[in-house]
Amino acid sequence: MPHLDLLTSAIPNRIGDSDDLLQSTLEIVRKHLGMDVAYLSEFIDGRAVFRRVDAPGLEELAKVGDSHNLADVYCGHVLEGRLPELIADTADNALARSMPITHQIPIGAHMSIPILRSDGSAYGMICCLSRDPNPTLNDRDLETMRVFADLATRHINRELAENEQRAEQRHRIESVLARGAFSPVYQPIFDLGKMTPAGYEALTRFTDEPIRTPDVWFNEAAEVGLAEALEIAALERALARLADLPNDQYLSVNASPDTIVSAAFAALMDDLPLYRILLEITEHAQVNDYATLLQALEPLRRRGLKLAIDDAGAGYSSLRHIVQLSPDVVKLDMSLTHDVDSDAARRALVGALMFYARETSAQVIAEGIETQNELDTLKLLGVRKGQGFFLGRPAAALLDPVSAVAFRRGA
Question: Which architecture does CATH list for 14-166?
Answer without folding.
Answer: 2-Layer Sandwich (3.30)
